[in-house]
Specification:
The protein is α/β, with parallel strands linked by helices. The protein contains 14 helices and 10 strands.
Length: 290
């Protein structure tokens, strides 16, 4: 669904994706369904923060399809046990939770995988953010919807986190030969790091799915980090607070609010003109988290 705000700005409502609570992480999780089913996986191990959208959809997916699930979470355990939003949804599933320091996530995930194998289960190691070829392909394919809606933008702005959604869009734009420029607004990584990750995965997607057209330039703007992941300024807080009234969407301060704010500043600073599409990856659960 594309929601037009004015003549030049529209929003792609990825939050309306109709499974697992919606959003880009749900779309990427469901893209894995056939692989998990056909290859008989019966457990998943993945990681994220205590309010992770990716962890929410993984927990819901596993509960729905009777697959065992272990989440290796980083963040405040007490907040996870008391906050609403994604944390509450995860708590309402039979998911096994392991709290971890960031530098121990990889080893804790390996241990969880080994534990499932010792029980003669077949576990799937799912990288944080749902970073898979299948998930990336979901965003190659979704570009078709822009054609169906007859809305081919000059620019797409998106919150850039783990980067697979951003990379999928770049590969999809190459496949359909659009001239659309994709600008990622970083929610945590530095510009150089984010652009390397996105560019690498976009090229891998292009090779894997035999997209012959060249991938466009990868651009990520890290000017709006406000100190790092999860941090925000007063302007982002105000934008988030008024988002339902002004734009009919929930912009949270960690992801989509930061990205929308960054988009507005980018347009202003670079005197951007043309059709602009903000890719709304979802935000209601983070908005209502506290």
């Amino acid at each position: 669904m594309i929601q037009k705000i004015n003549e030049d700005l529209a929003i792609f409502r990825d939050d309306n994706y109709p499974f697992l609570g919606g959003g880009n992480k749900a779309r990427k999780m469901m893209a894995l369904h056939e692989k998990l089913k056909s290859e008989n996986y019966n457990a998943i191990v993945t990681t994220g923060g205590i309010q992770s959208n990716h962890c929410r959809v993984t927990a819901l997916y596993c509960h729905k399809y009777n697959i065992e699930c272990t989440l290796v979470l980083h963040g405040d355990k007490d907040k996870f046990l008391t906050e609403s939003g994604n944390a509450k949804i995860i708590r309402n599933t039979p998911t096994k939770i392991i709290f971890s320091e960031i530098d121990q996530i990889s080893s804790n995930m390996d241990k969880a995988i080994d534990n499932y194998k010792s029980q003669e289960k077949k576990p799937f190691y799912l990288y944080g953010g749902g970073h898979t070829f299948e998930g990336g392909k979901a965003y190659i394919d979704v570009i078709q919807e822009l054609i169906e809606y007859d809305y081919i933008p000059d620019y797409i702005f998106i919150a850039s986190g783990t980067g697979s959604t951003h990379a999928g869009l770049l590969a999809g734009i190459a496949k359909f030969k659009f001239k659309t420029k994709v600008v990622g607004i970083s929610v945590g990584r530095s510009k150089n790091n984010a652009e390397k990750v996105v560019s690498k995965f976009a090229k891998e997607l292009s090779e894997n799915y035999k997209i012959s057209n060249g991938i466009g330039k990868t651009e990520v703007d890290d000017s709006f980090l406000c100190g790092g992941y999860g941090f925000y300024n007063d302007d982002i807080k105000k934008l988030s607070g008024n988002s339902l009234i002004d734009y009919n969407i929930f912009l949270d301060t960690t992801y989509t609010g930061k990205a929308f704010y960054g988009m507005k500043k980018y347009i202003e600073n670079n005197a951007i003109k043309g059709k602009i599409l903000f890719w709304y990856t979802g935000g209601i659960y983070n908005y209502l988290a506290k």
